[in-house]
Amino acid sequence: MDQARLPLVAADSDLNQAIVAMKDNNCSGVVVELASGARVLDIDTILHTLRKEGNVKVRSVKARVRTTMLPGHLSVSAVMTNGDTRMDVQELMDRESAVYAFADVVGGMGRLVTRHEAYRDVLAAVPSMWRCRQVSTDVWLTHELRQPGNKCRNDGSDVDPI
Questions:
Q1: Is 59 helix (H, G, I), strand (E, B) or coil?
Q2: Do the beta carbons of residue 67 and residue 38 sit within 8 Å?
Q3: What is the pTM of this model?
Q4: What per-residue confidence (pLDDT) applies to 72?
Q5: Is a pLDDT exceeding 90 seen at residue 93?
Q6: Strand ranges inside the chain, DSSP E
Q7: Is the per-residue pLDDT at 12 higher than 90?
Q8: What are phi and psi of 65, to 5 degrees?
Q9: Going by DSSP bridges, is the β-strand pair 29-34/2-9 parallel, antiparallel, or unpaired?
C-alpha cells in the first residue's frame, strides 16, 4: 500500500485536457470526480479511448480498475501511519476489488491510496507521448510507435512529441 497524488480534471474536460494535466504534473494518470464517486484514469486508458472514440469527455471514459472512497473523513496520512487503519482500508479495498482509494483534493491534486506500491509506480511514471501528424487522435507512448523510424502505428506517418 502506498499514496499517490494525481491532477484533478473536471468531468467536462476532454481527453486532450487530461493529457495536458498529466504532462504538466509529470504523472501518468488523472482523477475525475463524478456523482458516483472518484475515478482514476491511467494513461493507457486515456490514450486507448482517444484513439478508439476520439477526444471525448473524461466522464464517459471507463476506468480499467476500480476506485473506492476512503471511509468517513480518513486522510491518506492516517491510513499510512496507523497500522489498524491501514489494515481496515486494505480489507475495504480487497472487498470492493479496488486498486485505488480516493481521499480528497488539495491544491487541484487528488490524494489517494494505492493498494500496492506497483500501482503508485505506474502513476508516477512520466512517459513520452507522440501525436500523429495526420490523425490528431492517434497518440502513442514511445514503445508503441511503429519501427523503424518512430512512426504512427495506424498509418505509418510522422509523429510529433507532446
A1: helix
A2: yes
A3: 0.92
A4: 86
A5: yes
A6: 2-9, 29-34, 37-42, 66-69, 98-106, 109-114, 129-132, 139-141, 159-161
A7: yes
A8: -130, 160
A9: parallel
pLDDT tens across 17-59, in order? 999 999 999 999 999 999 999 999 999 999 999 999 999 999 9
What's the burial of 111, exposed, middle or buried (CB within 10 Å: 0-12/13-18/19+)? buried
Residue 26 identity (one-letter amino acid): N
In 54-136, alpha helices (H): 76-81, 83-95, 117-124
Q: ∠ at Cα 50 (45, 51), nearest 5°?
A: 105
Using an 8 Å Cβ cutoff, are 76 and 112 in contact?
yes
The answer to whether 100 and 90 are in contact (CB under 8 A) is: no
Rg (CA), the chain: 17
